[in-house]
Amino acid sequence: MPEVERKSKITASRKLLLKSLMLAKAKECWEQEHEEREAEKARYLAERIPTLQTRGLSLSALQDLCRDLHAKVEVVDEERYDIEAMSGMEGRKKMFDAAKSPTSQ
């Protein structure tokens, strides 16, 4: 049986043009999603975080406000650290269990 060479139904230049158009469309969609995420983030933060009113506060009131904010930041940082440590431990435990199991050989 003689081998028949398959010819492409689409030229190389047309294929390249279509590929570049697809990449341009994907980039456009990605940028639009990124803008939407940023807008959603801004809306969420505007909802959840009240604006900081510092006008008309005395020096002692400003210092108290700074202390309160610093304490809140410390609490959030501790929680974030705990979550990262726990997720890291879980990941290491899973890797250790997978390496230890007889099915991984």
TrEMBL record:
InterPro entries in alphabetical order: Troponin, Troponin_I, Troponin_sf
Stored Pfam families: Troponin (PF00992)
Domain of life: Eukaryota
Similarity remark: Belongs to the troponin I family.
Example of a GO MF term: actin binding
Assigned GO CC terms: troponin complex
Name of the protein this chain belongs to: Troponin I1, slow skeletal type
Role: Troponin I is the inhibitory subunit of troponin, the thin filament regulatory complex which confers calcium-sensitivity to striated muscle actomyosin ATPase activity.
Signal peptide: none
Keywords: Actin-binding, Muscle protein
GO biological process, one term: cardiac muscle contraction
